[in-house]
Amino acid sequence: QVQLVESGGGLVQAGDSLRLSCAASGRSFFGYVMGWFRQAPGKEREFVLGVYWGGGVIDGTDSVKGRFTISRDNAKNMVYLQMNSLKPDDTAVYYCAATISLRKDPWDYWGQGTQVTVSS
Q1: 8 Å CB contact between 21 and 79
Q2: 45 and 62 in contact (C-beta within 8 Å)?
């Protein structure tokens, strides 16, 4: 059974940092793109960042450029989202996802999400 489990969300103040983690299990993720999406109340799901197996980064929404970074540890089947200089607009449920092909929509596997709330 494939599972993606996010952790690290919470309530923080504007300007703070958080690191989200995603633990992937249940199959080999060799060759899979891993990424983070987010969805704020009343808004559509938004692609934040993705990372190829080899570490190359796929940019998502412009609103996080220069503040968020993504990384993965293939040996541990982990993906991370480092979020710095958080803003209230970053408030959302953040989802970890995996896909074997970027042509797929939606991606193949999804986590349950972790809430990030940024207060002003």
Answers
A1: yes
A2: no
Distance separating alpha carbons of residues 84 and 108, to the nearest angstrom = 28
Q: How far apart are CA 27 and CA 43, in angstroms?
A: 32
DSSP letter string, 26-84: SS--TT-EEEEEEE-TTS--EEEEEE-TTS-EEE--GGGTTTEEEEEETTTTEEEEEE-
8 A C-beta contact, residue 22 and residue 4: yes
Q: Give 5-8 contacts, CB < 8 A, sequence gap 24+.
A: 5/96, 5/111, 5/112, 6/94, 6/95, 6/96, 6/111, 6/112, 6/113, 6/114, 7/114, 8/114
Question: From first to last of its 120 residues, what are the pLDDT tens digits of the chain?
Answer: 999 999 999 999 999 999 999 999 999 999 999 999 999 999 999 999 999 999 999 999 999 999 999 999 999 999 999 999 999 999 999 999 999 999 998 999 999 999 999 999
How many CB atoms are located within 10 Å of the residue 106 CB? 10
